[in-house]
Design brief:
Elements (H helix, E strand, L loop, with lengths): L3 E3 L4 E3 L6 E8 L3 H18 L3 E6 L16 H15 L3 E4 L3 H10 L2 E4 L7 H14 L2 E5 L10 H11 L5 E5 L2 E2 L5 E2 L4 H6 L5 E4 L5 E2 L12 E2 L4 H10 L4 E7 L13 E2 L3 H16 L1
Parallel strand pairs: 3-4, 3-14, 4-5, 5-6, 6-7, 7-8, 8-11, 11-14, 14-15
Antiparallel strand pairs: 1-2, 9-10, 12-13
GO molecular function: 3-deoxy-8-phosphooctulonate synthase activity
Pfam families: DAHP_synth_1
Keywords: Cytoplasm, Transferase
Length: 284
């Protein structure tokens, strides 16, 4: 398996390394809130001895409604992410949506993310591979809801053709869709993807989404089953995941995006403590 390192932060992901925590907020709402969430989560991870990456999106292009909140946009969003990095000395992860965004995003984010629905877009994947190769970063690829785990080998191959043998890909499981406003996570897919030779994470937040089924908006936004986040995350650690991807908010019901799927900040420490224990037990 690839042994990926973020040298400036002394962070590695994969076999023989601690569980990596990619956590933050769904979409940037304000600079102050981003700093508040990062401060809390970094403190928890420092206490538990876990490597931490701050996560937030500057734009959520895949929305149920044209009127849904999308974020501050590329320019302002990258400024906020840069401020978070400067304040707390942590790497950041954020997604990009077009090939043209890959370079500017990688200037700020050590880990750039391919959204699930776009993971088969060759131009997007190649642009991301080129951007992280130039900066020795990581490419976090969400497995599409319509893609079989073993078919992710084609994504890894595309990246490798750009980067050479030092493939920076991390695959992320986030559930499969069969319609009917639901997602199903097959934990057998995690070891299958790891057999492709790259680290694997679990996006336990988006895995509990109920797409287009938020009763608060009569289906005008995505619903979720917040109580399922811990179940998915713990199961994935038991299945061998190398890292976890989670979203938090001080008041999830007031979050501007995917509130039904995110957790309150106070849930971070007990959940991450349990996940660390499972991760260590599996590798022991």
């Amino acid at each position: 398996m690839s042994d990926l390192k973020l040298a400036p932060y002394g962070m590695s992901i994969g076999e023989g390394h601690p569980m990596v925590v990619m956590a933050g907020m769904n979409v940037l709402e304000s600079r102050d809130l981003a700093l508040r969430i990062c401060e809390h989560l970094k403190g928890v991870c420092d206490k538990l001895g876990l490597p931490y990456v701050f996560k937030a999106s500057f734009d959520k292009a895949n929305r149920s409604s044209i009127s849904s909140y999308r974020g501050p946009g590329l320019e302002e969003g990258l400024k906020i992410l840069a401020d978070v990095k400067a304040e707390f000395g942590v790497p950041v992860i954020t997604d990009y949506h077009t090939p043209e965004q890959a370079g500017p995003v990688a200037e700020v984010a050590e880990i750039i993310q391919v959204p699930a629905f776009l993971c088969r877009q060759t131009d997007l994947v190649v642009a991301g591979a080129e951007a992280v190769k130039a900066r020795d970063g990581w490419l976090h690829v969400k497995k599409a809801q319509f893609l079989a785990p073993w078919d992710c080998k084609n994504i890894i191959t595309k990246v490798g053709e750009v980067t050479g043998p030092k493939n920076p890909t991390i695959l992320c499981e986030r559930g499969a869709s069969f319609g009917y406003n639901n997602l199903v996570v097959d934990m057998l897919g995690i070891p299958v993807m790891k057999q492709l030779g790259v680290p694997v994470t679990i996006d336990a937040t988006h895995a509990v989404q109920l797409p287009g089924a938020d009763p608060r908006t009569a289906g005008g936004s995505t619903g979720g089953r917040r109580e399922g986040v811990a179940v998915i995350a713990k199961s994935a650690m038991a299945a061998g995941a190398d890292g976890v991807f989670l979203e938090f908010h001080p008041d999830p019901d007031k979050a501007l995006c995917d509130g039904p799927s995110c957790l309150p900040l106070e849930a971070a420490e007990p959940l991450l403590k349990t996940l660390k224990t499972i991760h260590q037990a599996v590798r022991a």
